[in-house]
């Protein structure tokens, strides 16, 4: 079924991407700067094949906005990412970029001082390793276009830039529209109960098919804990309307999370929901008749995905349950959609 959907929607572009179909070159405009404000990393993604290639351009080097395009490290220690972690509706055109046959797309990355916690690491030389995983759709295989990391030395000013000033609060959904507020409240309740169900199942069936599919090879205690903190409400949730200005249009953003960092730790977080969260995403019980692979299958699943960002700082390495099942052991632990898929799989197993 997945295959026929792909054929219908992407008929004009290359289907099975293979390694080498996209090449990435990354360089720093200046390898030594005074301030984090002056860091500019320039990337060129080239398509040497004879067909246009359309790929998801979020959470990778093609995305110049505030999603995670790099792993930034100093002396081997990765800096905490404090930009946007979002869930997308992959039917939206704005989620994709087409690299023309024989052509390339260039992207500059700026404003990085707000997206990574340079301050906690102090001045010095930082290594920027580009995220070069590409997918033609949410469940398409991931191809990596490896490229060498680039170094930038920041000599004077690494003070944390504020992306959007966050508000600290407990998990109290607020929304001017009473109906939508109730939807958020219900989805949050579902998200916690999905995570709680997964946590309980990890204790009672530590080698379940679901655990092995979404987290196999990881420590049960560790993955249990990450679900338990979501179920136990140790996060906060946000109240303002789209402060990052990324909802709407063809951008496909369903919901997103912003984390507050201090001294290299997550100390708080806000979750925001966009219009399509209310209009295009199914209820959690609807997965009993439908599937749960898609990000738009369940609102409780969306909030669970966001809560894994908010509480454990997970990344977005791949979306869609079948792709999450194929990640490496370490990437399964670090990928938000694995938590959504595990929670929904356990729900479907016991509640449908
Ligand atoms: C990236 O920045 C460099 C230096 O400012 C500039 O020459 C180049 O045109 C920019 N590229 C894009 C795609 O904006």
UniProtKB/TrEMBL annotation:
One of its GO terms (molecular function) is metalloendopeptidase activity. Its cofactor is Zn(2+). Its EC number is 3.4.24.39. Zn(2+) binds at residues 305, 309, 316. Keywords: Cleavage on pair of basic residues, Hydrolase, Metal-binding, Metalloprotease, Protease, Signal, Zinc, Zymogen. GO terms for biological process: proteolysis. Pfam families: Peptidase_M35. InterPro entries: Fungal_M35_metalloproteases (IPR050414), MetalloPept_cat_dom_sf (IPR024079), Peptidase_M35 (IPR001384). Residues 1-16 form the signal peptide. CDD domains: M35_deuterolysin_like. Binds 1 zinc ion per subunit. It catalyses: Preferential cleavage of bonds with hydrophobic residues in P1'. Also 3-Asn-|-Gln-4 and 8-Gly-|-Ser-9 bonds in insulin B chain. The active site is at 306. Belongs to the peptidase M35 family. This is deuterolysin. It comes from Collybia nuda. The lineage of its organism: Eukaryota, Fungi, Dikarya, Basidiomycota, Agaricomycotina.
